[in-house]
Design a protein that fits this description.
- Helices cover 36% and strands 10% of the residues.
- 23% of the residues are buried.
- Helix 3 packs antiparallel against helix 7.
- It contains nine helices and six strands.
């Protein structure tokens, strides 16, 4: 929220760039080497560290403060799950991971995407780039029935089966917040202001009854 109030896009939020003091009560964001003032920014597919890169950057859509919130969502997922949310070896594989988690990208976004042809054919069908096992050459494989593989809430709920009722409620809140953060359309992504008032942030974990 402070960055947005200052009109600054960090463009490289990830765990490596988040500092925590010894008492665990002060957090600071560091490394503003990729940061910029918000405005008419250059469209490039390589802003942000890949695992924390927002879909609007990969697709070549206008980007702004919501890209930082996507990265924050990746950090929150990683803190709870202990693993990277979207671990792709390329932008194309990152898109595949996004689609597996959230389903197909809305066509109205694809129509405006500068880098659409890197990931979709002329019919708007997603194609994943893979190495042919025989020729070792890169080939494209169409994925016509792109849809979520597993709901985010189910993935988080299955991470720890030994949680109490209050903790399960907190995980459910986290899943809901992440679902609102991991929205393809940056204009429909939850805002920083609304994220800060989300129950996951506002409500504590009730102490278990004796």
């Amino acid at each position: 929220r402070h960055l947005k109030n200052c009109g600054v896009v960090h463009a490289d939020i990830k765990p490596d760039n988040i500092l925590v003091n010894k008492s665990h009560n002060v957090i600071k964001i560091c490394d503003f080497g990729s940061a910029m003032f918000d405005g008419d920014n250059e469209i490039t597919p390589y802003l942000q560290s890949r695992f924390y890169r927002a879909p609007e950057v990969i697709l070549g859509l206008p980007y702004s403060h919501p890209m930082d919130l996507w990265s924050i969502g990746c950090c929150l997922y990683e803190l709870y799950m202990g693993k990277i949310a979207f671990q792709g070896r390329s932008n194309n594989e990152m898109m595949k991971k996004f689609i597996e988690a959230k389903g197909p990208v809305p066509r109205k976004l694809l129509r405006r995407a500068a880098f659409r042809d890197n990931h979709y054919n002329h019919e708007g069908v997603f194609s994943v780039v893979e190495d042919d096992p025989v020729t070792r050459q890169a080939i494209r494989r169409l994925i016509r029935d792109a849809k979520p593989v597993k709901e985010l809430s189910a993935v988080l709920a299955a991470h720890d089966k030994n949680l109490g009722e209050a903790e399960r409620r907190k995980v459910s809140q986290l899943a809901d917040l992440l679902d609102k953060i991991f929205t393809f359309d940056a204009e429909k992504r939850i805002t920083v202001t609304h994220a800060l008032t989300h129950p996951f942030i506002k409500e504590g974990i009730a102490a278990p009854l004796p």
